[in-house]
Structure formats: structure tokens, C-alpha cells
Design goal:
Helix content: 25-40%
Largest sheet: 11 strands, antiparallel
Number of helices: 20
Strand content: 25-35%
Structural class: alpha+beta
Bound molecules: beta-D-glucopyranose
Distance between the termini: 40 Å
Radius of gyration: 27 Å
């Protein structure tokens, strides 16, 4: 059942539905970019219905085991001790479980504006006693180590004994993803537990291999009718957990509130002596639940000013867009800036993909660049710190420069699994998707786009150039000269469409001349040459000397930008890779009829003892990524020097060709298709936009959201509004707008942070208004088509569009 969001800010789920609980948990995660906790019911434990998971950004651990005769090692984002352990029992009954009682009301609400999750329920227990419960919780957006949970019990018609239990549960493991359960998931060992004072509990654990210490401290206070009271507590230490229990006597009409404030710290924290000291200190500094909530809500308010996107029409779009931004900020926010972390595509919301970092930043950074640019910069620094590992990987594979891993974690080595389980067939299959070398192009592209959006010369002179030049260097060496063709070629790769990992009947992994990869390589080489031009002479000299860049190497880069091979077939269709046209056509309607959900066609075919490598069938946009990343003009500027044409009708023909051959097995596919269709087929574009919006709220991939949100698609759906439909672009110190605004969406108003200005853009069908706030910041330049206008602080310009 889809939740409802009536006021555009509050997502409401009615009723308790065990089958849907894990999906809700993922979508009701509260986080602050430092850590996040799934929206699991308080007091629940991991079982078939619940999965309370808590994850701290960058907190990984490695475990190895033997699978199908091979030793496999995986690094995973670690599920940390469960601080949600807060529950109650009536008389001698069991601890509360919504499945055991008669519920007369159950409502769960996620308030995006203030970042608060609330649950209200009313129940009658086996003894006929009626109680009303309100739960509120949040992960503090200002004080990043703190989280709060509060239960208020209204005793309606009974008197007697109420037992309350509050704890920290370290008996947790990573078991949130069924198909990983055959592999070990125990990452934590307990180091210390205790009760530092009358109201506090402390639990310290350590990861088994990375030896990260995590401390959680919890302060529990009791209130009756709003008045604080003390009740003797009993400490309970079991396994790796610690809890306190209170016995209370209540009478009908009582309102009992249990307030629990938790501090979570790790040994990775800056400005900390030691995690347990730090956790206790944060707890001592923490005021009451309400005082903490006030600051938390204020901080969210400040974030929403930057991330404001308002659609005038009453549609479902508005609350979903906000939900997507909410989960972006739960995963990365200003609390992540000093943490040395990347953007995990499944958020800090579940264990899918083990929290690894992929290329999804390509879909996320354009939204951050124009709202929290210092965050993008720090996320790019995550890549810069891993340049030594990427250089080493390139050298080992026989290349120059930096070869970034397809899946990245703590130390920058390749974290992709080498075997994966096909749940349909039960077989472990070799996985060569790590050959997605295009990830490096995305890193360079993100660095360039950040520079374009911010004009941050300091970044360009440092990490920016280093990333772009080292990735260029890799492409310069990965492209080999094919004398017969008089062209450069790139072989042995996998494109963004992960279905094609080898040629049919070949034992060699990878395919040759993936069009997206080759063209991105050309783009990177061109940008690298341009970057060198943009540097002051002294800095260029430093780079040239440190990297040992020789004239011949730069000449080779230049030559590749004129001689890279790009495969074509059928008169103007860019082939996804060389030889694509020789593959068989799939009988799509037969497979749709037979399996209904064919997103993961690769798994279906493998289970049929066939292979998707044999067919012209893609998981997601691959060639079409080119029209997503580049405008038609930019693409022409890349292709024409190579001697290839892109006539106007080539774009719709390519779109139609690949659209008919894509299973959309990745949620990223819908956003890319919406984007590329926007200027050609508005109605279809909107259909894909709606599909992208529904990816997680409606869990369109049938169960994957419960294992973690799809952050790339979430944020890219917001980016569609700003960069695609509103046509916002930052290029050459100008903020360009070029709307293709679908009138169906009504008026759009949104804010961006551009060169110190919090700019408001208002787009309607016929006009675009751009306003800058007052202040002393220098004027900015706004462009529409050929016209560029200088805009002073505190003014508005309008364009008829
Ligand atoms: C997609 C990749 C993506 C990854 C993480 C995969 O299903 O094919 O493109 O990077 O998910 O979101």
C-alpha cells in the first residue's frame, strides 16, 4: 500500500502490515549524514518482520569466507548496536509486540519538514487493558552524535504494573539482505559495557578487522504527566547488550513518558579523545528531548531553505521530491564533510551492495553542487585520498594514471564481489562487473562539474586537476592504437549496462569499444588538456613535473580525441559496443508474458541455462547515457573531430532503438530515459519521471527498497526538475536556464546556491523569473539562449521562454 502525504511534508502509513514493515523501515529511516537508523519499531529485533539497522557513514569491516571453493572477502558497512531497544510490558506479560495485541489504531508518520518519525497506536492486550502509545524519534541534524526516542503511554482504563525496558543491543549482525546470508555477517565484538551513572548506559564494541571502536551511550528518563520522576532500575547484561528495567505502578489516566537520548561515536571521529568518553560527553551536553528537537528542527529548516523545491500543483510529485531530498540528507549532509566518506547508493538505509560507493555520485552531485557545495568537495576529496590506491591498481593492470574501483570502500581497493548468487537458480556466478572502468570518467566528470558550478579555483588547482589528469592518463594508456583502422580502441570493459560482461561463447571477460566508455574517455582527455590550460603556469609546471607528463603523452591524448573508435550500425545507431548488432534479438513479449517482472533478465536467463550476453538486451541506459550526460551540441563537439556525425534525427532513432531493448533492471534507467525523452516526447518523459519517483515509495523493483533506498534515482529525479525540465546549467561563470517545462507540473519554484547567492527560480509555462537575495556578494550572470544579464543582489530578471 502506498503511503499518503497530504500536506506535501508528512508521509502517513495507516495500519500495521507485517509484510510491508521492512519497506517502511527503509523509507522511514532517520539520519543526519553521520549515522542513520531504519524506521524499525522500538523494541523490535531482527526477524522475519523487522530489521532494526543502524549504520555510521564510512564504518566498514572486512570478513572472509569460502564460497563454491573460493575464498571471498567482503567489506561491508556495519550494522551497529541497536539503540532503538525501548519497550514495555504490562503486568507479567511479554514485551510489547504489535502482532500480539488487538490494535484499534496504528499510524506511522514521517515529518520531512522537521525530520521526525512518529508512531501512534492504541491497543487492547489479552487482559482487556487499553493503552495508547505515541513514539517520536529523530537523528539530530545539528548535534550529529545524538539521536532521541520517546515513548508516551496513556493508560486508558486499567491500573497495575508497567515494566519499562531501555537498552543498547550489541547482539546484532549484518543479516538484512537474504542473498548475503550464506556469508558471515558478525562484525562486532563487545569491548565494554556499564552504567556510568544513575540514568546512563554505555556499550562499546569494536569491528573485528578494521578495529573501529563504536560507543553508544543512552540516557533514559521517566516522566508522569510531564513531571520527571525517579524509579529504581535493574541492570540487565546479556550477551553483548545492556539494558535497564523499571517497575512502575500506574493508574487509569496516567501519562507516562520514557525519554531516551543516545550518543553514538566512533574512533574515526575528529575532535575526540576516545569514543566512550566522547559519547558520555555528548550525552552530558544534551538537553531534554524537546530542547533537542527544537534545535534539530531549526537545522532542518535551514537545510530546506537551500533545498527548497515547491510545485504549485497539488500532485504526488511534491512530497516525493521532498522525501528524496530528505533521504539524501540522511545519508550525506554537512555532518559528513569531515568524515572521509563517499555516497553509498543504497543510503545508510540497509545493507544492499554492502554500503559500497559506485558511480552513482554522477546522479547525486548536480543537486548537491548547487546547495551544499562544500559537501560535494569533501565527497570528491574521498576520491582524491584514494588516488594512490587507484594509481596502484592501474599500474598492476599495466596502465598509467589512476584506475578507480567500480566499488569502493575504505581504502580504495576494488570491493566488487567476484562471485554473486543468482537467487533464481541458486548458483554462484563469476562476476566481472568490476570492469566498469567508466567509473573513473564519472569521477573526473564530477570534479569538472563541481568546478563549473562553484568556480572553486582552489579545488581546481588541487584535487580537481589531480583527479582529472590522473583519470585522463589512465584513458590515454587504456586506449590502444589499432593500425588497421587507424583508430584507438578500448577493450575488455563492461559498460553501464551490466548485462553484457563478455561476448557469447568467449571465455574472455569484457567487451570491446563500449560507446559510452570510449566517448567519456575522449571527454576526459579533452577536459584534461583544457584543465592544464586553465592552471597558472607555476601550478601547471608542478603538475607536469610531479606526474612526469611529457609532451608526447599530451600529444597522444590529443590524437585520441581525434581518432577514438566509436561503433555504429544500422545507419546511424551508435552500437552499445562493437559487435552488439550481431547479437540475437530477444522475444521481449514472450519473456514479459512468462515472467511479468523482467527487470532482472540476466538472472532469468541464467536460471534457464541461457545467458543475457547472447541478446540485444540491456539492464539500463548505456548508449543513452551519452544524451544524459551531454547536450546534443556537446556530443557533436566530441564526435565531429572524430569524424562521426550526429544528425538531428539520430537522437530520436537511437532513443527508440535502445528503449525497445532495455529491461530497466536498475532504477537509474528510468531517470535517464525521462531525461533523454524530455525534449522529444514529453508525455513519455513524464511517464518515466513518474516511474523514477515511484522507484522507492512504491518499491517498483519488488522488494529491493527494503534492503536500502536507491539514492541515485531518488536524487536524479529531483535533478530532472532542475537541470532537465527547468534547463538549469552552470557553464563558464554563467547560470543558464533553458526550460522545457511540462505545463502538467504547474509552477515550479526552487532555490540554488550559486556564487554566494541563494537564488530563487520560478518557472511557469511561459516565463522564468530569477531572483537574488540582498547582500554584499558580487553580482552574478544569468543566461537565457544568447542573452546574458548581470544580476545585482536583491533583484529579479524575467525571461519569456
Ligand atoms: C546499477 C549500477 C549502480 C548500482 C548501485 C546497479 O544495479 O546497475 O549502475 O551503480 O546498482 O546503485
Amino acid at each position: 500500500m502506498m503511503p499518503e502525504a497530504t500536506d506535501g511534508w508528512t508521509w502517513t502509513y495507516e495500519g500495521f502490515d507485517p509484510d510491508e514493515e521492512m519497506l517502511r523501515e527503509a523509507l522511514c529511516t532517520v539520519g543526519n549524514g553521520y549515522f542513520a537508523t531504519r524506521g524499525a519499531a522500538p523494541g523490535s529485533r531482527a526477524d522475519d518482520v523487522h530489521y532494526p539497522g543502524t549504520y555510521a557513514a564510512g564504518c566498514y569491516n572486512r570478513l572472509s569466507s569460502t564460497v563454491a571453493g573460493q575464498v571471498v572477502e567482503n567489506e561491508s558497512l556495519v550494522n551497529l548496536p541497536n539503540w532503538l531497544a525501548l519497550t514495555f510490558a504490562i503486568e507479567d506479560g511479554d514485551w510489547f509486540d504489535p502482532a500480539d495485541v488487538e490494535l484499534s489504531a496504528y499510524r506511522q508518520q514521517l515529518d520531512l519538514q522537521r525530520g521526525v518519525l512518529t508512531r501512534q497506536l492504541r491497543f487492547r492486550d489479552a487482559g482487556g487493558r487499553t493503552t495508547h502509545v505515541t513514539e517520536r524519534r529523530f537523528a539530530h541534524m545539528e548535534s550529529r552524535h545524538l539521536a532521541c526516542i520517546e515513548l508516551t503511554l496513556r493508560i486508558e482504563d486499567w491500573s497495575g504494573r508497567l515494566r519499562v525496558r531501555s537498552g543498547l543491543d550489541g547482539d546484532v549482525e549484518n543479516s538484512g539482505v537474504a542473498r548475503y546470508r550464506a556469508l558471515p555477517g558478525r562484525h562486532l565484538r563487545m569491548v565494554e559495557r556499564g552504567a556510568p551513572d544513575e540514568e546512563t548506559l554505555l556499550l562499546v564494541v569494536e569491528t573485528s578487522q578494521s578495529r573501529i571502536r563504536i560507543a553508544e551511550a543512552a540516557r533514559t528518563r521517566l516522566f508522569r504527566g510531564g513531571e520527571r520522576f525517579a524509579a529504581p532500575r535493574r541492570l540487565i547484561e546479556e550477551g553483548a547488550s545492556i539494558a535497564q528495567e523499571h517497575d512502575l505502578t500506574v493508574v487509569a489516566g496516567d501519562e507516562i513518558t520514557i525519554e531516551k537520548v543516545v550518543a553514538l561515536t566512533t574512533s574515526r571521529d575528529p575532535a575526540s579523545s576516545e569514543p566512550s568518553l566522547n559519547a558520555c560527553r555528548w550525552l552530558r551536553w544534551a538537553g531534554s528531548f524537546d530542547a533537542l528537537l527544537e534545535r534539530h528542527a531549526l537545522t532542518w529548516d535551514h537545510l530546506w531553505r537551500r533545498f527548497r523545491i515547491t510545485l504549485a500543483h497539488e500532485t504526488d510529485v511534491q512530497p516525493i521530491v521532498r522525501l528524496h531530498l530528505f533521504h539524501l540528507l540522511a545519508t550525506v549532509s554537512w555532518n559528513s564533510i569531515d568524515l572521509d566518506v563517499g555516497v553509498p547508493p543504497r543510503g545508510l538505509h540497509g545493507e544492499a551492495y554492502r554500503g559500497h560507493i559506485f558511480w552513482d555520485e554522477l546522479f547525486v552531485f548536480p543537486t548537491l553542487n548547487l546547495r551544499l557545495p562544500s559537501l560535494t568537495r569533501s565527497l570528491l576529496e574521498y576520491r582524491r585520498r584514494r588516488l594512490p590506491a587507484a594509481r596502484h591498481a592501474a599500474a598492476e593492470a599495466g596502465y598509467a594514471g589512476a584506475m578507480f574501483p567500480w566499488q569502493s570502500g575504505t581504502d580504495g581497493r576494488e570491493e566488487s564481489q567476484r562471485l554473486h548468487l543468482n537467487p533464481r537458480s541458486g548458483r554462484w556466478i563469476p562476476d566481472v562487473t568490476y570492469r566498469q572502468r567508466h567509473v573513473g570518467a564519472a569521477v573526473a566528470y564530477n570534479a569538472w562539474l563541481y568546478y563549473q558550478a562553484t568556480g572553486d579555483r582552489g579545488f581546481l588547482l588541487g584535487a580537481g586537476s589531480e583527479l582529472i589528469l590522473e583519470v585522463a592518463r589512465f584513458w590515454g594508456s587504456a586506449a590502444t592504437y589499432d593500425r588497421a583502422r587507424d583508430r584507438y580502441v578500448i577493450t575488455g570493459v563492461v559498460g553501464p549496462d551490466e548485462f553484457h560482461t563478455a561476448y557469447p561463447e568467449s571465455d574472455e571477460p569484457g567487451i570491446a569499444n563500449n560507446a559510452y566508455t570510449n566517448i567519456m574517455a575522449v571527454w576526459v582527455l579533452r577536459r584534461a588538456l583544457e584543465t592544464l590550460e586553465l592552471l597558472p603556469e607555476w601550478r601547471r609546471a608542478e603538475f607536469v613535473e610531479t606526474l612526469g607528463l611529457r609532451r608526447e603523452e599530451l600529444e597522444r591524448w590529443d590524437e585520441i580525441t581525434r581518432k577514438m573508435f566509436v561503433p555504429y550500425h544500422d545507419d546511424g545507431i551508435i552500437s552499445q559496443f562493437e559487435g552488439y548488432e550481431r547479437l540475437a534479438e530477444l522475444d521481449w513479449s514472450r519473456y514479459r508474458e512468462r515472467y511479468r517482472d523482467i527487470h532482472r533478465l540476466d538472472r532469468i536467463l541464467e536460471a534457464e541455462d541461457d545467458s543475457v550476453n547472447r541478446y540485444r538486451a540491456s539492464k539500463q541506459a548505456d548508449v543513452l547515457m551519452l544524451f544524459y550526460v551531454f547536450s546534443a551540441d556537446e556530443l557533436r563537439q566530441l564526435l565531429e573531430p572524430l569524424g562521426y556525425q550526429l544528425p538531428p534525427d539520430a537522437i530520436p532513432r537511437n532513443i527508440d532503438y535502445y528503449l525497445a531493448r532495455t529491461s530497466h533492471g536498475s532504477t537509474l534507467s528510468a531517470v535517464v530515459h525521462a531525461w533523454v525523452l524530455a525534449r522529444l516526447h514529453r508525455v513519455e518523459a513524464l511517464e518515466y519521471f513518474v516511474q523514477a519517483l515511484r522507484s522507492d515509495v512504491a518499491d517498483i523493483q519488488g522488494g529491493t527498497t527494503a534492503e536500502g533506498i536507491h539514492l541515485g534515482a531518488m536524487v536524479a529525479s529531483v535533478d530532472l526538475l532542475q537541470r532537465c525540465f527547468a534547463g538549469l546549467e552552470t557553464r563558464g561563470d554563467v547560470l543558464w536556464i533553458n526550460p522545457y517545462w511540462p505545463p502538467e507540473l504547474g509552477t515550479l519554484e526552487f532555490a540554488v546556491l550559486y556564487r554566494e547567492h541563494l537564488v530563487t527560480l520560478r518557472i511557469t509555462e511561459g516565463t522564468a523569473h530569477v531572483s537574488t537575495g540582498r547582500g554584499v556578494q558580487p553580482s552574478i550572470r544569468i543566461g537565457y539562449r544568447g542573452t546574458i544579464v548581470e544580476v545585482e543582489p536583491g533583484s529579479t530578471v524575467s525571461f519569456a521562454v
